[in-house]
């Protein structure tokens, strides 16, 4: 499997400095992180430069190529101008990701930033890295195996936020137990999906009637739409009072199924990731909420952890919890956890627009322009 090797250019360094100057000292400044600064202590490895692997899971979701990859490489350029990034995108294929990972070990990388397609399937490759002295930073999803650090969001809290937003919307329409809801969970191979499910059930259990619930392999929007359509047909579209979709991609498939089945307009529908199409659906009233997880601080944390680990510096955890996580291999993995934010019709301007995640021009396409005006976005 060929991997692109990119020397981090001075232009990338300048761009990173423009966007992330406040984060240059420590990850704690950047986004609830707490790793020691790579600029302190022994800088020999940074002065010489080294190879850093970056493995992202897929490109179907807009965030990875639009945000995660450039943010990580920009900050790496600032921290280690002579370093090289060896990049691979698995295209949602766990076998391909294992091949990419193993190829990076052969290219003598010192550290790999890994967002796994399948957290369990990659465990042997992570063990191989440990045996070769290569550090591994789990990014966004907690990989199995002997990883050295982890940065992500409070995923159980994400589920709680989704569950509370759905419950509030159901209560606004009357008794939340007056009819069934449908739950479309994420991929069973993604440990984050299990956390989201735990969080949402902690809010909804005993409050609602779950008519049907599905775990959706690969977070597939098409599969989510098929699952939702089957549930609507079995339960009766007219009886559905709400739908939990674990992310925005699947919410898109579910929204289409809701329309095709004749589910009542305005029926609450959740999401996550603040995708552009989801923000537009919120404005149009076909999705109730999403969860905004600011990617820049997560990317900054990952870059800092990678450089510090490769330089032999100690790293620490921060954010919610004890500062460590347990992935089944170790119960004391340093974890830098960032808090997410609920986005609804009322706060689009003060969240994703204010942060520059999406511009008003991107959001307010022709068919959304009237809704944008009503929300004060134009």
UniProtKB/TrEMBL annotation:
GO molecular function: carbohydrate binding
InterPro entries documented for this protein: Bact_Solute-Bind_Prot2 (IPR050555), Peripla_BP_I (IPR028082), SBP_2_dom (IPR025997)
One annotated Gene Ontology cellular component of this protein: outer membrane-bounded periplasmic space
Highest rank taxon of the organism: Bacteria
Signal peptide: 1-18
UniProt-listed Gene3D superfamilies: 3.40.50.2300
Entry's localization field: Cell envelope
Record region (Disordered): 313-332
Pfam family of the protein (one): Peripla_BP_4
Annotated Periplasmic binding protein domain residues: 52-313
Presence of keyword Signal: yes
Keywords, comma-separated and alphabetical: Signal
Protein name: Sugar ABC transporter, substrate-binding protein
Taxonomic source organism: Streptosporangium roseum (strain ATCC 12428 / DSM 43021 / JCM 3005 / KCTC 9067 / NCIMB 10171 / NRRL 2505 / NI 9100)
């Amino acid at each position: 499997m060929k991997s692109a090797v990119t020397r981090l250019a001075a232009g990338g360094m300048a761009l990173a400095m423009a966007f992330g100057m406040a984060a240059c000292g420590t990850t704690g400044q950047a986004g609830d992180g707490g790793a020691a600064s790579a600029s302190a202590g022994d800088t020999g490895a940074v002065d010489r430069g080294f190879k850093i692997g970056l493995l992202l899971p897929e490109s179907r979701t807009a965030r990875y190529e639009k945000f995660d990859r450039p943010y990580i490489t920009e900050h790496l350029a600032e921290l280690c101008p002579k370093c090289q990034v060896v990049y691979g995108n698995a295209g949602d294929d766990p076998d391909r990701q294992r091949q990419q990972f193993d190829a990076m070990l052969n290219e003598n990388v010192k550290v790999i930033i890994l967002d796994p397609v399948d957290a369990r399937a990659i465990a042997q490759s992570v063990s191989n890295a440990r045996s070769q002295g290569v550090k591994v930073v789990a990014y966004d999803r907690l990989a199995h195996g002997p990883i050295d650090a982890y940065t992500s969001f409070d995923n159980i809290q994400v589920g709680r936020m989704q569950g509370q937003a759905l419950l509030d919307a159901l209560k606004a329409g009357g008794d939340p137990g007056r009819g069934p809801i449908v739950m479309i969970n994420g991929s069973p191979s993604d440990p984050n999906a299990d956390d989201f499910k735990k969080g949402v059930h902690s809010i909804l259990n005993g409050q609602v009637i779950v008519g049907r619930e599905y775990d959706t392999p690969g977070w597939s929007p098409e599969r989510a739409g098929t699952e939702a359509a089957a549930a609507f047909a079995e339960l009766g579209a007219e009886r559905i009072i709400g739908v939990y979709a674990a992310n925005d991609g699947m919410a898109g498939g579910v929204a289409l199924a809701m329309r095709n089945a004749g589910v009542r307009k305005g029926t609450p529908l959740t999401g996550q990731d603040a995708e552009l199409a989801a923000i537009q659906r919120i404005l149009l009233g076909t999705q109730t909420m999403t969860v905004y997880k600011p990617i820049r601080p997560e990317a900054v944390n990952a870059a800092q952890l990678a450089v510090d680990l490769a330089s032999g510096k100690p790293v620490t955890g921060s954010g919610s919890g004890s500062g460590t996580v347990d992935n089944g291999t170790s119960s004391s993995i340093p974890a830098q956890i960032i808090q997410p934010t609920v986005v609804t019709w009322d706060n689009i301007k003060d969240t994703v627009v204010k942060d520059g995640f999406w511009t008003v021009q991107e959001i307010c396409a022709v068919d959304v322009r009237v809704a944008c005006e009503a929300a004060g976005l134009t």
